[in-house]
Amino acid sequence: MLETIPIKLYSGGVIVIEAYINNNSTKLNFLLDTGSGGISLDSSTSVELGIKLRKTDTLVTGIGGTKNVSYAFNQMLTTGSLKTDSLNFYVNDYSLLSSVYGEKIDGIIGYSFISRYIININFDSSYIQIYSPGKYTYDDGGTVLKPAFSRLIAHTVKLKDKSKVDANLYFDTGAGLCVLLTDNFVKDNNILLSRRKPVITQVQGLGGKKPMRLTIIKRLQVGPYVFRHVPTDLYNDEENITSYPYTAGLLGNEILRRFNTILNYPAKEIHIKPNSNFYAPFDYAYTGMTLYYYDKKVIVDDIVPKSPAEKAGLKNGDEIVCVANNCTGNVDTYTNIIQKVKETVRIIVNRNDKVFFITLWPTSIR
What we know:
Strand content: over 45%
Distance between the termini: 44 Å
Largest sheet: 6 strands, antiparallel
Mean pLDDT: 93
């Protein structure tokens, strides 16, 4: 074993680890993201660290759009005592992600780093262990998956709702959701029950915000493991970033965090073993708004018309001072508190320097 590194989990089970660039002593936060085909650095972080960038014609594509990016070539990443050199970081603006999680996101660690090692992600103990490539003995129990490996990992899962169908999905630890399916896949396979009307929601990705529709599928099977009544995002993939029909969407970390996982890129296999989160209930709550952290304030935005948030009287730009009895100003904490199905939540709001109470009643998508 080369190193053991603690991890933090944000909303949706997104994994964050601390690391350093080159010989700089500034501690940085990186998302561990199997859905990233490279490794990247936040644009403001690159300025703060004085890292020299080179303009390129390279385009990177993700949820929310496509961007032309500059690169910081031949950099070194230090995780614990492990130093990984000769990394080429593309540079992107991650201020939106920072506002979602309430903590600075300095970059994303993807394929360029992960593919060099065997990585054991243990959600029970909140650490990852990094091993050199080579012979590796998996823990008893669990199962070994043999996905298709390129810069991204794609594996076939079984879905059942109106109909049964196999779907090739990217394994995406950087996605704080359960399942995302493209509209084209849903239409071509006629998979969803028509009587269940999706609700409008908003997700954040590499290119910015993207509206989606949220519904439920009756059954999802990954290897031998079955989940029922799974929240599912429906995505109009206009730029075909999912490469449909090769893949139908992605499997996010709200599913993947339910397994202790060994990513073995050198052997082109993944070992998954159910952990203490395996039977955790899914989040069916729907508010129709998003909370962001701006200028040391938690701000409401992206309110959906006729949603519980609008019906409660909330408006875009409202500052959330307290949620229930919590006044910490932590956006991740506030987001988790309001996600209580059919439970009233009392919120203290500051609007134009006037402070008052609002009662929010989240509904259920199930």
